[in-house]
Amino acid sequence: MKILVVFYSRTGSTKKIGEEIAKGVAADTEEIVDLKKRSGIIGWFASGKDAMQRKTTNINIKKNPQDYDCVIIGTPIWASNMAPAVRSYLKSHKLDNKKVNFFCTARGSGIEKTFSEMKKLVPNSDIGKNLVVLSREIKSGEYKEKVKSFLKINNQ
Ligand SMILES: Cc1cc2nc3c(=O)[nH]c(=O)nc-3n(C[C@H](O)[C@H](O)[C@H](O)COP(=O)(O)O)c2cc1C
User: Fold this and answer.
1) CA of 67 to the centre of ligand 1 (A)
2) Residue 47 belongs to what domain range?
């Protein structure tokens, strides 16, 4: 099975988890590039506001998800929503009949709401188990075990 791990990451946490997942299942990776500047305090505010308003954004990607059987998609949680770059990705790619898994990194709020919205954007996909990694689990190293069991469940 050909697997693509897709993620957007502003400060590296979601990227770290995406790369760990990809390593575990020998998948290709795609880091979504958000063309809107999101660094600094102004970028931080705009990011929260855009996410809350469920905005999309202009993105750059390189790979075609249609070339894969399974697509694993990761987002940071912003203002209890997916990042706009991930919303743009899901809105612009039909992942019909593909196996799709979601993962997120977050401090700890707005997670289930975000997954359920992501699911609505790919209504014809076969959604598997999701993975949540909290900021404190990244710091402590606990994320490694979490990623391992996520991969085990999804390989059964
Ligand atoms: C603008 C903004 C809003 C955020 N809102 C939430 C939130 O609602 N709930 C939460 O648990 N974490 C929230 N966070 C924390 C991020 O989800 C968390 O730090 C994440 O791991 C960052 O991922 P990244 O390093 O891949 O960008 C927010 C972070 C930012 C920048």
Assistant:
1) 30
2) 3-155
**Which ligand 1 atom is at minimum distance from the Cα of 14?**
26
The rounded Å distance from CA 14 to ligand 1 centre is: 10
Q: Which of 78, 113, 114 has most ligand 1 atoms within 8 Å of its beta carbon, as the pocket-test mutant?
A: 78
Indicate whether 78 pLDDT > 80. Answer: yes
Angle between helices 40-52 and 84-92 (to 10 degrees): 50
Ligand 1 centroid from CA 106, angstroms? 5
pLDDT in tens, 87-130: 999 999 999 999 999 999 999 999 999 999 999 999 999 999 99
Ligand 1 atom with the shortest distance to the CA of 8: 26
Domain count, the chain: 1
- CA–CA–CA angle 102, 103, 106 (5° rounding): 140
The domain spanning residue 53 has which CATH number? 3.40.50.360
Could you identify the residue written with the tokens 């400060």? Answer: 11
- Residue 44: what residue type? W
